[in-house]
TrEMBL record:
Required co-factors: pyridoxal 5'-phosphate
Full protein name: Adenosylmethionine-8-amino-7-oxononanoate aminotransferase
Keywords per UniProt: Aminotransferase, Pyridoxal phosphate, Transferase
Gene Ontology terms for molecular function: pyridoxal phosphate binding; transaminase activity
Family to which this protein belongs: Belongs to the class-III pyridoxal-phosphate-dependent aminotransferase family.
Entry-linked Gene3D superfamilies: Aspartate Aminotransferase, domain 1, Type I PLP-dependent aspartate aminotransferase-like (Major domain)
UniProt superkingdom: Bacteria
Cellular component annotations (GO), alphabetically ordered: cytosol
Length: 444
């Protein structure tokens, strides 16, 4: 008997007992290759000796200090190191306990910034359809993931949504990727004009879309145009790098590859790498100064903000990613994974697209690869892949969702950066077993 309230109350799932490199082991001794790092969390695998040691040392030194103190030593060191590697202009780091809270803090900071500088009417948020930015009420209001929003609808603040940059579905045959990206970005201009530029607070987007569409990178130039539009209208650009940040796409921050910097960004998942729950919000010096010279008090704070043990763990993680070369490894092994996926599934009748950056890869499953017709929602292909993969000893992250009335099934892969080539072969082989089981005759 258990008194735990699990999220899936009806699911018959095993109990996890042990982590070993890129593998997880359940209470029956069965081993699972962690092909998605949970939800793109475990970038160092499950038994990293240096991070475990950093946690032990910090618990022995200072486990917790409340906000009667300004910060702590590990929080200061982590903030400095993050800013050293962050996109230009980002200058301050606010530590929280996870991704939803980092995004919640980002929205609240944007709101408070405009209040402090005397523009209270700027409170409208624009985000993208089918986006996911977290599960608290504030960020649920921002996300464009309808099934998550609908049960809470009367409580959500007003947000409007434009299309995501989704070339596989929306690039026209007569259009280059660049032309499509500019057309998609210009939806933001149109929406800002519709709302009145002086009313818009922020545009919110994931640089590479993770949890809802399976590693969809933007087309070249898309985010540069988005940045120009935001600048022209004084709208803040908030990038959600909770999933795609911390080296997942082959650079520490995903937006580096798009040649832009945000006003505010949120990171989490890979920051603690699963060893501690931690997230962070980074903002520009200009935004920080508006608070510092205004009320001097950011209206957001939870008990565990800047937790010493969590920041000490993240400092060890960040050291391994940057000085230890694991960001570069994410880039290199990502290419190996992409090639292996293309070799195995490039001609698969139900694989429409294989995409991503670094060790952040996605597969879009379709009923017909020529017409790109999706499976009907009732086929539950994503759920079938998940179940079959799990039985075969592979954890991956299948998902389904609807953009502009079109259903889609996707599989996200985000293995630890320490994955070896032979383990990539194992991952792809097990995924092949799962795809056969899910898309074969049993699927229709
Ligand atoms: N933003 C993105 C892009 C995410 O993928 C997630 C989680 O999957 C979140 C925010 C929320 O993070 P958390 O689950 O740590 O609250």
């Amino acid at each position: 008997m258990t008194h735990v309230f699990p999220r899936h109350t009806k699911a018959d799932l095993p109990v996890a007992v042990h982590g070993d490199g890129i593998y997880l082991v359940d209470s029956t001794g069965k081993r699972y290759l962690d092909g998605s790092g949970g939800a793109a969390v475990s970038c160092l695998g499950h038994s990293d000796a240096e991070v475990r040691e950093a946690v032990r040392r910090q618990v022995d030194t200072l486990a917790f200090a409340h906000t009667s103190f300004l910060t702590s030593e590990p929080a200061e060191a982590l903030a400095d190191k993050l800013i050293e590697h962050a996109p230009k202009g980002l200058d301050r780091v606010y530590f929280v306990s996870g991704g939803s809270e980092a995004m919640e803090a980002a929205l609240k900071l944007a709101r408070q910034y405009f209040l402090e500088i005397g523009q209270p009417q700027r409170h409208h948020i624009i985000a993208r359809r089918q986006s996911y930015h977290g599960n608290t009420l504030g960020v649920l209001a921002t996300g464009g993931n309808m099934w998550r929003r609908e049960p809470f609808a009367p409580l959500l603040i007003g947000t409007s949504h434009i299309a995501p940059c989704y070339a596989y579905r929306d690039q026209r045959g007569d259009e280059t990727a660049e032309a499509y990206g500019l057309r998609a970005a210009d939806e933001l201009e149109a929406e800002i004009q519709r709302l009145g530029p002086d009313n818009v607070m922020a545009f919110v987007a994931e640089p590479v879309v993770g949890a809802t569409l399976g590693a969809v990178p933007p087309t070249p130039g898309y985010f540069r145009r988005i940045r120009e539009i935001c600048d022209r209208h004084g709208v803040l650009l908030i990038l959600d790098e909770v999933m795609c940040g911390m080296g997942r796409t082959g650079t520490l921050f995903a937006c580096e590859q798009d040649g832009i910097a945000p006003d505010i960004t949120a990171i989490a998942k890979g920051l603690g790498a699963g060893y501690q729950p931690i997230g962070a919000m980074l903002c520009t010096g200009a935004i920080y100064r508006a608070i510092e010279q205004g009320s001097g008090f950011f209206q957001h704070g939870h008990t565990y903000l800047g937790h010493p043990v969590a920041t000490a763990a993240a400092l060890a993680v960040l050291g391994k990613l940057t000085d230890g070369g694991l960001v570069a490894r994410s880039q290199a092994m990502g290419e190996v994974l992409q090639s292996a996926l293309e070799a195995a599934f490039g001609q698969h009748p139900n694989v429409g697209d294989i995409r991503g950056r670094g060790l952040f890869r996605g597969i879009e499953l379709v009923a017909d690869r020529e017409t790109k017709d999706p499976f009907a929602p009732g086929h539950n292909v994503a759920a079938r892949v998940k179940k079959a993969a799990f039985e075969a000893g592979l954890i991956c992250y299948p998902m389904s969702g609807t953009v502009d009335g079109r259903h889609g099934d996707h599989v996200l892969l985000a293995p630890p950066f320490i994955i070896e080539e032979a383990q990539i072969d194992e991952l792809v082989r097990k995924l092949g077993i799962a795809l056969e089981a899910a898309t074969g005759t049993g699927a229709a």
